[in-house]
Design goal:
There is one protein chain. By secondary structure, the chain is an alpha/beta fold. The chain has 2 domains: 125 residues, D-Maltodextrin-Binding Protein, domain 2 (3-Layer(aba) Sandwich); 95 residues, 3-Layer(aba) Sandwich (D-Maltodextrin-Binding Protein, domain 2), CATH 3.40.190. It is 39% helix and 22% strand. It is built from 8 helices and 13 strands. The strands form 3 sheets. Strands 1, 4, 5, 6, 7 and 13 form a 6-stranded mixed beta sheet that branches. It has a 5-stranded mixed beta sheet with strand order 10-9-11-8-12, covered by helices on one side. The longest helix has 27 residues. The radius of gyration is 23 Å and the shape is globular.
C-alpha cells in the first residue's frame, strides 16, 4: 500500500512528465513555419505526388531546416498567397520580387534566385521591337498580382499596348500560353525559365511557341519574404540570410540550380 508521501511523489512526477510533454509539443509547434508559394516551375511547383518541389523550394527548405525549423510548404494562387502573408497567416512567401509596396508587409531575404522576363509569342509572328511603342498593336497577357519589371508596369499604366489582361488562377502562365495558341492574345509576358519549362513538359502542345530574346527591364532577384506580422520576423530574416550565405558558399545552391536546369548569375 502506498504511503501519502509516495502518492504525492507519484503525482508530482506524473505532473512533471505531463508538463514536459506539453512543453515539448509547444516547442515542436513553434518550429513549424507555414510558407506559401504558387505554381511557378521550375522554381516552385507540385510533384505528381503533391509534394512541393522546385529549385527555390529546395533551397528554402534546406536553409530553414538547417535553422531548426520545419517548413510547411503550401501551393496556392498567388493573390491568396500574398494576402495571407500580409495578414500574418503565413510566416513567409516566395518567390517574391522586392517592391516598395511589398516592403510595407514583408522583410526580404537576400536573393534566392534571379528572374529574366521576356515576351512569348507564336513562332509565326515575326517580332522585332526596341521600345514598347513598337508593340502598340499587341494584346498582352499577364499574371494577376505579379510584380513585373518596372518599365513594363509603367508601359501598362501608360496604355502602350492594345490591351493588357490579367489572368487569374493557380497557373496563369500555362493559361496564357494556351491563349497564345488560340489567338486570344499576341504576347504573353513570362519569366524565361518558367515558360520554357512549361513548353518542354507539355510537348508537343506548345511546339508552335517561342519567345523574343529581348529582356524586359533588368534581371531581377527573387526572395523569401517574411511577414512583418509573424513573431520575430526580422530576426528570422537575419538568421535565414546568414544560413543562406553558408549554404551557397558550400556550392549547395548551385547544385540545386543545376538539378532543375535553372540559369542564374547566383552561385
Amino acid at each position: 500500500m502506498k504511503t501519502r508521501s509516495g502518492i504525492a511523489f507519484a503525482l508530482v512526477t506524473s505532473m512533471a512528465a505531463l508538463l514536459t510533454a506539453l512543453s515539448a509539443t509547444a516547442i515542436a509547434a513553434d518550429t513549424v513555419l507555414p510558407v506559401g508559394a504558387t505554381e511557378w516551375p521550375p522554381f516552385e511547383y507540385a510533384s505528381p505526388e503533391g509534394k512541393s518541389i522546385g529549385s527555390d523550394t529546395e533551397v528554402i527548405e534546406h536553409v530553414l531546416r538547417r535553422m531548426g525549423y520545419a517548413p510547411d510548404m503550401k501551393l496556392q494562387p498567388w493573390k491568396r498567397v500574398e494576402t495571407s502573408g500580409e495578414r500574418g497567416e503565413l510566416a513567409a512567401v516566395y518567390s517574391i520580387i522586392k517592391t516598395p509596396e511589398r516592403e510595407k508587409f514583408f522583410y526580404f531575404s537576400d536573393p534566392i534566385s534571379t528572374s529574366r522576363t521576356v515576351f512569348f509569342k507564336k513562332k509565326s509572328l515575326s517580332l522585332h521591337w526596341k521600345s514598347f511603342d513598337d508593340l502598340k498593336a499587341m494584346r498582352v497577357a499577364t499574371g494577376a498580382g505579379y510584380a513585373y519589371p518596372e518599365p513594363f508596369m509603367d508601359a501598362v499604366k501608360q496604355k502602350k499596348f492594345k490591351s493588357a489582361e490579367e489572368t487569374f488562377g493557380a497557373t496563369p502562365e500555362l493559361t496564357n500560353l494556351r491563349n497564345l495558341l488560340l489567338g486570344r492574345v499576341d504576347l504573353a509576358i513570362c519569366e524565361v525559365s518558367v515558360c520554357q519549362y512549361l513548353i518542354k513538359t507539355h510537348a508537343p502542345e506548345f511546339d508552335g511557341i517561342d519567345y523574343s530574346p529581348n529582356v524586359i527591364g533588368s534581371v531581377l532577384t527573387m526572395h523569401l519574404g517574411f511577414s512583418k506580422k509573424w513573431l520575430n520576423a526580422e530576426g528570422l530574416t537575419k538568421e535565414f540570410n546568414a544560413e543562406l550565405a553558408k549554404f551557397s558558399a558550400a556550392g549547395l545552391r548551385k547544385k540545386i540550380f543545376d538539378k532543375y536546369g535553372v540559369v542564374s548569375d547566383l552561385k
